[in-house]
Design a protein that fits this description.
By secondary structure, the chain is α/β, with parallel strands linked by helices. It contains 13 helices and 20 strands. The longest helix is centred in the middle third of the chain and has 25 residues.
Length: 500
Amino acid sequence: MTTVNVSDRSAHDLKVDVLVLATVGVDGTARLAAAHGLPREAASHIETSLEALAAAGAAEEVHTLTAVPGVRAPLVVVTGLGRQAADSSGFDHEVLRRAAGAAIRSVKGGGKVVVSLPAPDEAAVAAIAEGAALGAYRYAGVRGPKAKPAKPVTAITVVTGVARSKAAKAAATRAAVLAEAKAYARDLVNTPPNQLFPKSFADSVTARARSASGKVSVTVLDEKALVKGGFGGIVGVGQGSVNPPRLVTLTWSPSKAKGSVALVGKGITFDSGGLCIKPPASMLTMKSDMAGAAAVAATVFAAAELGLPVTVTGYLCLAENMPSGSAQRPSDVVTMRNGTTVEILDTDAEGRMVLGDGLALAGEAKPDVIVDIATLTGAQMVALGARVAGIMANDDAFRDRVRAAADQSGEAAWPMPLPQDLRSQLDSQVADIAHKGERWGGMLTAGLFLREFVEEGTPWAHVDIAGPSFNEGSAWGYTPKGATGFGVATLLTLVESYAG
């Protein structure tokens, strides 16, 4: 775990391995952002070097300089904040996050890093600390004995004039916890599917709970318990695999809790599409189809680590969707946890089935609110692209609250409707409901299906993260290639909003 702290000492005089500074774009050239605090000789050297490199100060533009006079750190990394007046210190918090993350990602030698970006207040400190800590993530992968692992960034210090305030110190602590939580979610998603399947996922969560000194309680339902408990959705999806399904419940239950939040995560550890098998190219990222469950698990552990006065219960709906002689068929009818019968039309629309059972179970505990998060539909990516999640809800005020949490945390999300006139697409002649509608509006009909498993009167939101959960392109900002950990920050911020 990378440590994060704050300091009000002069950044150039700290004995660290790397100093990170910010630039802004002024008339097409890079200039050091205001309040950098460098000696004149150091500032002049850096700006001359940037001019020689044709640096423009563009957002997330990163350059590395060595042997800067008057600076104790052997390496200086300058990261761009974009076009803005050179004497301005007011930057959007997401701009600060991404700039800090891009800078830390560029650090190859690891070690101790001091980050000196414009941080006039505690909110800016929080954004910088989060971006830097998230940018320090490295996935070790599955390597042979000759592999040389990348050296980690071990410590991050954010330089700010408000370093002595309790809020700034708390922001640094939270940033470290959030980064560790996102790292856990990213690691789960990045793990190859022959190593992460329902049982091993459950084992990982159980082991992590033990290491958390009993703060989080865990219960695991195996395939026999799922059949006995009437979880037809999870059982049906998982019945074609040699790796049987699991349903994991994690609970952080503090004394004198000010509220209760239930989180339900889709955990398809590999999605072949089942008998409605996917094209080969579409399977390449299907190890990431459990990103919702990973985000839920990470959030519960983070809430416990921060000691938030809110009861948080996570439900991980884990199954592997595979084709075999025992696999679920199109036109099968299954009975869900709440007694609803569902006609299966497409075995590649399996996520809503496991979530339906999870939502029904979550509702039995009578939480204040329920959020489910899932890599649910390709239609989400058609509508919103690869970086923006879709939010649907049965309560407009709660949907806006989830959206506000996403905005505050820097995770892009957009509210989507649940048009009642699309509900008829889910009518079935042989069951209470069909589990899939027509092609058009697929993200919305999936949300309408899930709404059927939420008890009336309980505020519920559905977050579709099919696009932003996994980055198939190049790394950017604090987001690495591969698993992103999207949703952890939004869910944690939402839980915090119930802490009073």
